[in-house]
Amino acid sequence: MDLYIGLDLGGSFLKYALGDDRGTLLTDGVRQSRAQSAAEDIFNNIFLAVEKLLEAALIHNGAVKGIGIGSPGVIDAERGTLLGQSPNLPHWADIEIAPTIERKFGVPAFADNDANIMTIAEMELGAGKGFRNAICLTVGTGIGGGLFIDGKLFRGSEYAGSELGHIVIESDGLPCPCGGRGCLEQYASAPAILRLYGEALAEEGRRVDGDLDVKDIFEKLTTGDNAAKKAIDRASEYLGVGIASLVNALNPEVIIIGGGVSNAGSVYIEKVAKIAHERAMANASKNLQVRKAEMGNQAGVIGALLYARKRIEQRETLN
Ligand SMILES: [Zn+2]
Q: In this structure, which residues have their CB less than 5 angstroms from ion ligand 1?
């Protein structure tokens, strides 16, 4: 049996899984990602996970054909190397991710940006199945993006494209860690919803009471809390407007929204879809669907192992 390993390196966790060529998982696990450590420690941590999965493959009488890994940052997908700094891992910069894993285990390894990897999972097995043109957005602590155009991932001329959280929606807006200003991420991510909630409370002369997360705000919405309604309406407006611009530029068939915020409330997706349809040009949006991502927590590892399979099948091309 041909098996593949999928790895999903994030700011908090390293998720790992072993699966078959259709993305069905045989075993999976999660470790701390040791994101603040030196690159060598992060690699050693990855190696421990891979060793575990190689042992599991033996038990299943399977041969591991390839290893795929998703990492935050701009990745040269051809070579599997990180270009520059990763946003959440301070010592993870200019790293030969795939070549290092490949040298260690003698198994072909492939790396790509984590949002691209999630897009692959959604397009092959999730909400994007059957579509050829899609925009994937992961709305959580930040906003990640993937573009699937004419049946292929679109990465840009230097792998730095599809940073959809950093499209500008306020020309003189809030500063963003990317160095820009007024980025979508500053207005529609989970921290942005919390900030908008604080602002809405302040308008009513109230203050935030205790530690809240975005789930609490959606819960307050169901109890008729006016400030929660204002915050979610404003964030939906921003995300909907951002999506309308993307729809006008790319005329996709489907927008797929995943991440912590979409899990917190389906009402968010409904509001965003309504605004996107209202604000995008009629011809570009008349058949547009807005869907919730379906792959959940395992999107990263499943996408990564599907990516490894794809690259092995089509060694000469990047798809
Ligand atoms: Zn930005």
A: 166, 176, 178, 180, 183
